[in-house]
Amino acid sequence: MKEIAPGILIETGYEGVTLGAICTEFGALMIDTPLNPKDTMAWRTICARSSGGSDRLLVLLDEHNDRLSGAGGVKCPIIVHERTAQWLVSRSQTLRAASASTDIEWEEITEPVNTRGIHAEITFTKSMTIHWGDEPVLLEHHPGPSRGNTWAIVPEKQVAFIGDTVTPGLPPFLSNADFKAWLEALHELQLARFNEYFLISGRDELVNKEDIKHLERFLKKASREIDLITRGKTKTDEVEKLAEELASDFNIRTRREAEQIKNRLIADISEYLSNHSQKSPNND
Questions:
Q1: Does an H or E element contain 222, and which?
Q2: Which residue of 39, 42, 171, 250 shows the fewest CB atoms closer than 10 Å?
Q3: What are the pLDDT digits (tens) for 73-104?
């Protein structure tokens, strides 16, 4: 656990996404949950001890499985964007782990991820402000990596949890990508508004300007190459070749990790193409 600003904690020690907690006199506003539901209790206890009260609110930054699996154990109101809420309503009762994480541990999990009973009590469309103490917390919708991608921003502390908008060091998720919206979000992160901010990735700790610029270049390349495949008849070897090419933009540590990342990119690109096949003017 690390305190990056007074009353604002992050935790990277659990499997799954980077966790956050905004501690107030009333309780903790928790940002996401651990991948393993057994770790949720421990994280909940840490948040309670670090706050001035026992109340809790949970914000889920998107609909990825590794943000949902522990959410039921928090036992408090859940806040999500309306598109994430719609996904929660329509999902099957039990979800199998899919290629939805840069976390290598997540990719090795083969057991079903049980998200039964998770539903959002509070939703928003473009933005909402949480007044829970002296310092407001802003929730903003910034689609790109996912339909309901959300930023949780604490202006007074100049901290923003930006979820999967930037995933330093490893390829982002492309299966539900909205490339135009994503590039707009990256542009906004580079405006004066966020110059002095701590930007917290959902897959790492701090995001810097080079991380953002690298991802911009990557997304432009990925969008261009995927569009070329979309215009023709998709072939498996084209997808595999593109996955290998995109993976080479990152410093991958081991051969095993390289294979896992390539397979995830193949799955992501294939799903993206499937999602967009009916929109393609050349679709037969």
A1: helix 209-231
A2: 42
A3: 888 999 999 999 998 887 644 444 444 444 55
C-alpha 179/C-alpha 190 separation (Å) is: 17
What's the pLDDT tens digit per position in 235-250?
778 999 999 999 999 9
Give the span between the Cα atoms of 67 and 64, in whole angstroms.
Answer: 6
The DSSP letter of residue 7 is: T
Assign 250 to helix, strand or coil. coil
Whether 261 and 248 have beta carbons less than 8 Å apart is answered as no
Helix, strand, or coil (residue 120): coil
If we measure between CA atoms, which residue out of 134, 78, 102 comes closest to residue 15? Answer: 102
Residue 8: strand, helix, or coil: strand
Which contiguous run of DSSP H or E holds residue 246?
helix 236-247
Q: Which two tokens stand for residue 254?
A: 């081991």
Q: In whole angstroms, what is the distance from residue 192 CA to residue 197 CA?
A: 10
